[in-house]
Amino acid sequence: MKRKAMIKKLQLEAKRRGREFEIKELTRHTAIRIGTEAHTLGRHNEFDETTVRQFFAQYQSELGKGWWRK
């Protein structure tokens, strides 16, 4: 999955659920905060499906269990 598509999917889901969404560019990563959960995403153009699934799973407490499958 492309990096931009991952960020867009997170942003749309956060908006749909009424959560605060913030992106902050760091030196070699991008910090993405949804509600109280904040994690970093590397500056790669594409990510494999396993990495995407694991990254999305980190936001389950804010967006609900398995939110990316819907």
How is the secondary structure organized here?
Blueprint: H1 3-16, E1 21-25, E2 29-34, E3 37-42, H2 49-57, H3 60-63
List keywords for this structure.
70 residues; alpha+beta; 24% strand
Provide structural commentary.
It comes from Mobiluncus porci. This is Ribonuclease PH. By secondary structure, the chain is an alpha+beta fold. A hairpin with a 2-residue loop joins β2 and β3. It has helices at about 5-15, 50-55, 60-65; strands at about 20-25, 30-35, 35-40. The mean pLDDT is about 95. It contains three helices and three strands; from the N terminus they run αβββαα. It has a three-stranded antiparallel β-sheet with strand order 1-2-3, covered by helices on one side. The protein has one domain (about 5-65). The longest helix has 14 residues, at about 5-15.
